[in-house]
Amino acid sequence: GLYYGETLDGKPHGQGELRDYQNNKVIYSGEWANGKRHGQGKAAGPSAGSPVWFEGQWKQGLIERGTLFPDGDWCGVKKPDGTPTWPIKPIRWEEGQQLANRDLGGGWTLAEFLREEGLPKYFPDGAL
């Protein structure tokens, strides 16, 4: 990705955005410390239709607490009336909790979706 924002010693530090190389889509916007996501921030998938999948607090590059799928949309595709194709209830989460293996519809569970998108690396051990 491409980083735009404040730096310290050549690393992201302070407010900044990480954008996808190919389509310039923002995939993380928020606070950074020593090159890692740290503080308040939002993360989205890199593809053009990907929704925001997390909004909340980060700690040393990992999710600490916040809301998964704050917009209630996980696939980014809308029906003709503008509603999400697979709306889900936003999921509150904080470090120390295990994510429920809830059904997202369309044959996907939450854990499967997170794994398919390469997102487990942002969760502390034991969250999935």
TrEMBL record:
<protein>
    <recommendedName>
        <fullName>MORN repeat-containing protein 5</fullName>
    </recommendedName>
</protein>
<dbReference type="Pfam" id="PF02493">
    <property type="entry name" value="MORN"/>
</dbReference>
<dbReference type="InterPro" id="IPR003409">
    <property type="entry name" value="MORN"/>
</dbReference>
<keyword id="KW-0677">Repeat</keyword>
